[in-house]
Amino acid sequence: MKRKLLALLLLASLLGAVLSGCGDGSAAQAPEDGQTNGSTAGAASPETLKNEITVGIAQDLDNSLDPHKTMKAGTREVMFNVFEGLVKPAPNGDLIPAIAEDYTVSEDHRTYTFTLREGVRFHNGDTVTAEDVVYSIQRCASADETGIVPVEAFSSITELTAADERTVAITISEPSNEFLSYLTTAVIPADYTEQDTAPVGTGPFKFISRAAQDNIVLERFEDYWGEPAKLDRVTLKIMENADSILMSLQSGAVDLCAHLTSIQTAQLGDDFYIAEGTMNLVQALYLNNAEKPFDDVRVRQALCYAVDREQILDLAFDGYGALIGSSMYPAFSKYFDESLTNYYPHDVEKAKALLADAGYPDGFSMTITVPSNYQPHMDTAQVIVEQLREAGVSAEIVPIEWESWVNDVYVGRQFQSTVVGVDASNMTARALLERFTSDYGKNFINYNSPAYDALFQQAIASYDDAEQTALYKEMEADLTQNAANVYIQDLADLVAVRKGLEGVTFYPIYVLDLANVHFS
Amino acid sequence: MRYILRRMAALLATMLLVSLLAFIAFDLISGDAATAMLGTEATEESLAALRAELGLDRPLPVRYGEWLAGFFTGDMGTSQNYHQPVWELLAPKVGVTLRLSLLSFLLITAVSIPMGLWSAGRTRGEGLRTGLNQLCMAVPPFFTGILLSWVFGIVLKWFTPGQLPDRAADPAGAFRYLLFAAGAIALPRVAMTVRMLRGVVNDEMRKDYVRTAISRGNDRAGVLRRHVLKNALAPVVTFLAQTMAEIVAGSIVVEQVFAIPGLGRMLVTSISNRDYPVVQAIVVILAFWVVLAGTAADLINARIDPRLRLGDGA
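ok -> structure tokens follow
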């Protein structure tokens, strides 16, 4: 008996020694035993004392942090707090001056002259000069550095000059109503080479650190030109596991988390309230218009009639979400045409008739390729499969990894249909609609409508705002009438916020604005 | 000595093979770092340009050779996604994962060996015990992880799920946090080890030498401890060494559930990002760890059972 006890004791001490001994070899290790430390970690929230919060995010910012380089939506969403352009988006969808204090447009609508705000500083302490602005725009226009995403609208710039320290003049070849939207492009210091890993911008928060697959830390930028951020510090904690996010909210480790599902928020209890916005995505069953049988408009229309979108929202989203009928979501109120939403009411008989008309009286088989790590899209696809069966179409879901989706579906266009959400990279209708012009590089559904292409050319050439808006709406109608895709919804964005925290703001683009979040 | 040297050579060969297989497997899956980085911004031209820039357009043997040469000169390369040296990314994570897997291993050993011995030869409540045992074996670690987090984290508040305390500031807290994660990994393996040990001991107890020993008047516990345990231990040690591979696999999931910043989570995202310098480095580190455990088990077994040593010496 004694020996057993001794063995156990030995084992226990070995356990302690090994666990503290191995690893990174950081200084003094005195593990003590587990019980001595009376004040345990517990769930007592230290953040009530400090003016800082922890935000849960589902994916790491695991790419270059340089704002001009390839950016995942999740990275852009967070870095919105760190970078600004000459102008920046406001919650209502307008563009408001940021680094520029003011601007004038010449008579011929071709030259924009920006006056920079006085004393705007970068996070490294340097003052923003016209040189920095020219450098930033030039960098995105030429895109000759690896990884830089070219801003296509900048190819129309014919002249770009820094008239003096605080004046930048940009001349473009043709008048464009949307050019200003592209000047949300981040302004960064010229000749700073560490943007990839230690980004420097002018936003209300400055970047402090990133620990891969662990956390990102932002701190308030004291010298911000505008109203400073209300929180001292924000830690973004990466939790790719949905259960882990929920548990961390409940335990007090995380104070705020966006993009939750209604099933998740229902479990949260009294410590939280839910802020509801939209994801600003066009979720649809995207159809490869070049692939049989989807090259026949009747087949595409039949699918539109066969799919009951209300039921999708009820079954998969607890009724949350906003129905759409074309490649535009309601938050873009200026361009959203509500009359298109119910263009194809649910009608199985009509679907069958159209299919018979197209030569498929007994239906056909098809595949739906879905990125499997996006549960909302998987759920949607599952409901669609059942609905299509009623119309005689047997659909099969092919789950695919996101990176393979990009490679095979998006770039390779090797697919029949897919359920995803398409977002807008900036606040223009063009960002959503240009992609379906027939010769566009990202027209992954191979949409081909000469009328659509012509409308687009007219739209971008138009300088009259009302006329341009009308043209964009005609393009949306073209997509609907030709049943380019089976449009479903803009997903609801449910944000869990710890009670006592306020100021979550929604935008018509995919960003998480932390500057206004504060304790009440 | 020769035995140890030979084991080391085998270890090295295994590592080489593992790294090569990982490299080839990685080449076969659809998509590469360029598609991962460009995402929906990708066009045929931009992909080709980025591939050339990253050197992904070269043939596989050239890329593997380059990686291998770098590895042996201490350069693990640069993460294509994070734009940071691989070692800088992984250094803080290696310790966490090693601690977690060691803790799981010790838990398995400390719990299953006494339990296995206790349960051997006892027949009362066997049905219940077998049922419980099978239940524990069947429950996947991620479920156990969620259950443990909920019971001990949310209800009892013994630790804060999602908040691994800093080891320097709160070593006891960090230990406790990892202990629950290790428990989730250990549970199915504990069940398997208990079952196995029980079987081996029961077989052994029926052997002639045991009956002889008992018939000569030795007490049962003494025989068990002095003779049976020694004979029963060899297969168990081998089994426990294989357990290390299971632990490493389990830790990948459990690290996600407990939000522990370890190698496993990093491996999963790096694979989906097609960030091969990181994947290669993690695969090699984890493989080394697993193979090392196997080697250690063989050396221990050689001490327990001199026959193994003799067999080798020839």
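The first helix of chain B runs from residue 2 to 28.
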